[in-house]
Amino acid sequence: MTLQWTAVAFFLYAEIAVNLILCIPFISAKRWRLVFSLRIWNWLSPYWNKCFFTMIMVLIVLFLDAVREVQKYSGPEPMQDAKVNPNVYDHVHMKLFRAQRNLYISGFSLFLWLIMRRVVTLLNQIAVTLESSAGLQAQMDGALKRAKQYQDDNLMLKQAVLDEERSMSAKNQQLRLEVENLANQVKAAEEAVRKSHAEVEAMRRQAKGLAQEYDRLLTEHHQLQNLQSPADKKDQ
User: Fold this and answer.
1) Sign of the torsion formed by the C-alpha atoms of 36, 38, 42 and 48
2) What distance in Å separates the CA atoms of residue 85 and residue 93, rounded to the nearest whole number?
3) Using CA atoms, how far apart are residues 231 and 224, in angstroms rounded to an integer?
4) Number of domains in the chain
C-alpha cells in the first residue's frame, strides 16, 4: 500500500472511531455541545470549512482515481494478456484487488466524512433544541404558576366580594330595621304631638270658656254691687 492510501486508510479508521464515539448513547447532546464550545474549536472554526471542503476534494480525487484503476484492470485488454501469461494473470488480479480496496477505502472515507459533519450538526441542533425546550418549559411552568396564583387571587377576591356583599346585606338589613324602628318612633311622636295639640286646643277652649265665665261672673258681681249701693244709701 502506498503512502497516500495508507494515510486514507488511517483517516478512515479515525472517522469510524469518531463516529462511534459520537453515537455513544449515554453521552447527551448537551455534553457534546459543551465539548464543541471549547476555545480550541472556536479558534479552529475559521479554518474548519476550508479543511472540510479540501478533504472532500482530496477524497473525491482519490475515489475517481480508484474508479479509473478498477476500470483499467477490469477491462478486456488486461484480461486477454492475463489469459496468455499466468504470471500476468496474478499480477492483474492483484492490481484489480488493490484498486477495488482503494475504491472502498476512499468511498467510505468520503461517505463517513460527510456523515460525521452531519452528525456534529445534528448534535448541535439537538442541544440547541433541548435548551430552547428547557427554556420554554421553564417559561411555561412560570406562566402556569402565575396563572394559578392569579386564579387563587381571583378566588380570594371573589370570596372577599361575597363576604363584603353579605356584610353589606346584613348592614342594609340592620339599617332597614333601624329605619323602620325610627319611622315607628316618628309615627308615635307625631301621634303624641297630635294628642298634645288636641289637649292644648281643648285646654285653650276650656280656658277661653273659663275666661268668658269669669267675665260674666265679674259683670254680675259688678251689677250686684251696683244694686246694693243705692239701697245702702237709702237706709242711711
Assistant:
1) negative
2) 13
3) 11
4) 1
Question: What torsion, rounded to 10 degrees, do the Cα atoms 168, 169, 171, 175 define?
Answer: 130
What is the span of the domain harbouring residue 62? 3-161
pLDDT at 77 over 70: no
Determine which of 91-95, 117-121, 138-142, 232-236 has the lowest per-residue pLDDT on average.
232-236
CB 33 within 8 A of CB 124: yes
What is the sign, positive or negative, of the torsion defined by CA atoms of 49, 54, 59, 60? positive
Q: Kindly state the cell numbers that stand for 38.
A: 471549547
Task: Determine if the pTM surpasses 0.70.
Answer: no
Residue whose C-alpha cell reads 500500500 in the numeric block: 1
Q: How far apart are CA 92 and CA 86, in angstroms?
A: 10
For 199-223, the pLDDT digits (tens) are 888 888 888 888 888 787 888 778 7
Other Cβ atoms within 10 Å of 56 Cβ, number = 14
For residue 61, CA distances in Å to 5, 103, 112 come to 12, 11, 16
Q: Which of 123, 104, 97, 120 lies closest to 12, judged by CA? A: 104
